[in-house]
Amino acid sequence: MNRDYFLQLADYTLWVNSIVIGWLNQIDDLHWSQILPSSFTSIQQTTLHLVSAEKIWLDYWQEVANPVFLSTQFVGTKEDLIQLWMQTSATLQAFIHTYPEAKYQQQVRINWRGVAWEMSFWQTFAHFINHATYHRGQVVTLLHQIGFTDLTSTDLATFLRKRQHVESHGSVVNL
Predict the structure, then answer these.
(1) ∠ at Cα 12 (163, 3), nearest 5°?
(2) What is the pTM of this model?
């Protein structure tokens, strides 16, 4: 675990979220809110959970007083949520790029549903990445359920391979 690893994961998160957002921009409001079997009841609710988790982890890491899980209060449109997700992802990337490696072992205070505990920053970041990957996978499955098939690989390996190509050839290849 080193700074470069964290930076690559932050860059990956922005890259992959941008891809998923592109897919979500292509579906209509009916499919956005259609009730579908999954952990959450729709693409909308799964996306809201993803954005809520990303935002609250940022709040914990930035020591925001009394962070609130977004899904408990969000009443905006699909476009509002997507815009918030793009902003949150960019903020996450900027935060990780400026977060000192010396603080990776520091404890992060968490208060979830009235239960307080602490975990080291690197553990919370690893959880964040794993959690987001899991729920983005659910979005892919939900998109398949509504007949959306214009999907591409969002694997970390795909991102790293494309990044390596850019770095070695100096040209962007669908990154």
Answers:
(1) 90
(2) 0.93
